[in-house]
Amino acid sequence: MFIFRSRLSTSIGYISLRTSRVLRQKQISSFSTSTLNGLDGIENTSTNVTTEASSTWKSLGVPSHILGKLDAMKGLASPTPVQQVALPYLLGDLTSPLGDCLIHSETGSGKTLTYLLPIFSRLDGKTAPIAKLRAIVVTPTRELSHQVATVAEKLASVGNKKDPSRTVRVVRVVGEISAQMLHDLKETPPHVLIGTPATLANLIGVHINTGELQTLVLDEADELLRNHSIAHVKALVSSVRKHGNKPGTIAVSATSSFGLVQFVGENLRKSHKVVDLTRGSMVTPSTLSHYFVRLGKANAMYNSFTRFLAAARPSCALSFHNSAKSMEALEAHLRDSHIPVGLLGNAYANAQRARALEGVRSGKLHVLLSTEMAARGLDLPRISHVVNFDPPTSLREYVHRAGRAGRLSSLSANRAGVVVSLITSDSEQNALFDFAHELGVALGEMSFEGGEIKITSLLGPVSDGDARRAHEAKLRNSVRVKASAGVAKVSGTSNESAIHIAQEAILSEAIRTN
Asked: Which is more confidently placed, 395 or 28?
């Protein structure tokens, strides 16, 4: 199944191949049935969906044994837009197997709770014993696994302490699994298993039975289906299906990729549902402000960063780097200025990474330096400012980095965030301007004078112009060959409309790499 943005109307909407319905926040009633049905092989299966400010957890179908747990969790007074759209489908019939669902929504919009609620709504240890594993959640990093497990444990039913079979057990598995843990997993199987791809792939089908599995979740799905992770994810899916079981699959992400489109076509049921609040584009939360600081020399970055901290006074700043060497150089400079910092990256021990995150969450650390590890899914509500110390290499990286700032939290219902990029060359500036154009956001130039921040200019948002459209047109021809091959692999068809869909799925990435 493919989804694509139609160019048949001035309003943005979606239509789909095969039989999937498309659940959208924005109404698409301006599409006429005759126009859509006139396209060969494409059926108008869109559903008008609007969010209601008065929606409550109960009205969305959350069962009573979960409502009390939500009340006890801070900052969850009402559902977010993605939860309002997705949960009526995911919670529609708790006695029936969960259907497949693809969810696209901006960073920090509440996707984790969106997929955890359907899992735990189907698990009530107080009313019936639970024998075996019911849900698996796959995340790209151990830090995200820990974060998801923390939320899951708050939703787990305590059950009857005298009867362990009625207690919903959540287990997190990352890295190498000890012999003792393997023994414990076999003796007392978890009901919800959360972990990283390689660890889960080694466990499932060998040490853990998935015969009663109801739900498989891919969190940050586009990242999981890239590079080193994709082989482990496919091995995991294969192991689950060897037992003759095809659980409901939920794939969630803020951005898409052609790899994700392929996975959906190959692995999700034809009747799967799509919830897309991104309008088919990469987006950043509307609460973010975007700025850049133009520096004459690269070695001026260290002093500029310190001046930025003094002028902005962030509750916590997250600085992104493209290497451990870059992080350590800035760390040394900050420590010379008696500014404590935390480091997050694959080059550092797990215990050190855990201390850094705990320092940020507790308020002891006000600066966190990280590689792309922190860009995916981590919810650190104290982060008010994101700094691109080293430039992001793609629009996708920029979106996920930016999404760490100003996240929804118990600290504020809708807190603003700031994204600042340090620029040392014309090429970096041009790339940043392209990102701002693609996202449709205003971009301000920031400087520091007398310990205060000064905004010297404000650019955009820039609308589509002839130059941009001409650039995209040139790329479409080179993209078409790749798109045609991808369509043939996924859907077994060379349908002209399907080729166009695949072109749209990879066009944004192609623009960034040409």
From this structure: 395
Rg, the chain, Cα only: 23
User: With bands split at pLDDT 50, 70 and 90, how would you rate the model's confidence at 461?
Assistant: low
Give bridge partners of residue 490 from the DSSP assignment.
Answer: none
pTM, full prediction: 0.69
Model confidence band, residue 412 (pLDDT cutoffs 50, 70, 90): very low
Q: Are 347 and 325 in contact (CB under 8 A)?
A: no
DSSP structure string for 37-59: HTSTTEE--EE-----TT--TTT
Q: How many residues appear in the chain?
A: 514
Q: Give how far the C-alpha of residue 111 lies from the chain's centroid of Cα atoms, to the nearest Å.
A: 7
First to last CA, the chain: 28
Nearest to 195 by CA among 223, 168, 231, 219: 219
Sign of CA dihedral 187, 188, 192, 197: negative
pLDDT of 345 strictly over 90: no
Q: Of 165, 58, 169, which is closest to residue 119 (Cα–Cα)?
A: 169
Pairing assessment for the beta strands 215-219 and 342-344 based on DSSP bridges: unpaired
**pLDDT tens, 150-177?**
999 999 865 555 555 567 889 999 888 8
Q: What is the pLDDT of residue 244?
A: 65
φ/ψ (deg, to 5) at 17: -80, 160
Q: Would you state the structure tokens that stand for residue 302, as one six-digit string?
A: 């260290």
Q: Is 298 helix (H, G, I), strand (E, B) or coil?
A: helix
A 10 A CB-CB count for 295 gives: 16
Residue 365, pLDDT > 70, answer yes
Instruction: Identify which of 276, 287, 275, 255 has the alpha carbon closest to the alpha carbon of residue 140.
Output: 255
Q: What is the pLDDT of residue 26?
A: 32
The 3-class SS string of 233-279 reads: HHHHHHHHHHCCCCCEEEEEECCCCHHHHHHHHHHCCCCCEEEECCC
Other C-beta atoms closer than 10 Å to the C-beta of 185 total 18
Question: Residue 325 burial by CB count (10 A; 0-12/13-18/19+): exposed, middle or buried?
Answer: exposed
